[in-house]
């Protein structure tokens, strides 16, 4: 069996693995990367982040949802959308990103091996090449595990039957369903529910909880629920699917309340599990936790000090953006390369529902739990020229400031470009800025940026008048 030695062996070609490999290569380290798929980029490129967001944009374009608000005319029935219409752009985006990743690794002189990987010992990974079915031993002074995650498939759902999908296989649907049940109202379920609803599918969203995306600020969660309801999504709260019975007339779902629902297709979004089962981690001495999660420290080291893990495989927050930073910082630590700063604890979140949500920092709930007095500033999209121009008058920006010094603690946006809008607040929070940085700034008109100015002025006025404030009881 052929053996090759490297400074670094990376298992997994997703955002974390690619970022870690390139970071090490940029500092002159020899690097090998193993991936089980011919298409590099992991879930971020192939089944998750980029595809789902591309489908969302396609749905908005084909449905005329933006034009509906802008011109007051419903364009959604101007023609029948086909699956080819729906998926063509997604596949083009995916192909382009695959090519870009391959070219980047080639420029960095990283050896890429396509195939399955398993540990032989704590420094040796055996790769079974998919190209010629031969095995090769890759020995690394450092090893980075970045194998990502996969959808959980509860046994109650017979996935071998037609019409049943998870967040990976939904991209292979044969035609747009007229009715769809989405089981699980987490981020993935809510995003796909919004996308299919925009295309005219009757969508039922089923969740065991009684509130949508409880990690969001409660005001934003309520507003998003109302908007999705207005868009036609039917919510089934505090419900669990107890039986899934495919039949000639559709798929029958029996719910815990005793009610039932028959739909043309079902998408199960029941969470994700780490892709670690085939790695033979015991041979490397690396333990795993619930759903295959690998436990790491603040430097992304496992209990075996030269083996690191990053990205979805270590769990929350499991975002492409954070995975990239984790991979880079893990390899900086592994090779003694000084990071410019500690890993930031201020991380943005984007939810690509319709309307979309962006957030960073504290929520009202978290500040109340911690007993931190705060003041709120708000501005509606409809109060700005940009909001009126694009036809979104219901969106809003909400800023939360610490009462004692008006330092920005939280940013929450709902509406068009909300996931972009929060980055202004993110940078301000990283610099410990106060309301004054916004109230005294000059923003272009018309832009969404001026929402920050109006919201900051609103907060300063509220602080002066002792309104929109929260203090700990007593």
Provide structural commentary.
The chain is α/β, with parallel strands linked by helices and 474 residues long. The chain is built from 14 helices and 22 strands. It has a six-stranded antiparallel β-sheet with strand order 17-18-21-20-19-22, with helices on both faces. α3 (49-63) packs antiparallel against α5 (83-107). The radius of gyration is 24 Å and the shape is globular. The protein starts with a strand and ends with a strand.
Explain the layout of strands and helices.
Layout: E1 2-11, H1 15-26, E2 31-35, H2 42-46, H3 49-63, H4 65-71, H5 83-107, E3 111-121, E4 124-129, E5 135-145, E6 149-151, E7 164-166, E8 179-183, H6 187-198, E9 202-206, H7 218-230, E10 234-236, E11 241-247, E12 250-255, E13 260-263, E14 265-268, E15 272-274, H8 281-284, E16 307-309, H9 320-334, E17 349-351, E18 357-361, H10 364-370, E19 374-380, H11 385-390, E20 396-402, E21 408-414, H12 418-430, H13 436-439, H14 450-465, E22 469-470
Parallel strand pairs: 1-2, 1-5, 2-3, 5-16, 7-14, 8-9, 8-14, 9-10
Antiparallel strand pairs: 3-4, 4-5, 6-15, 11-12, 12-13, 17-18, 18-21, 19-20, 19-22, 20-21
Helix pairs in contact: 1-9, 3-5, 3-6
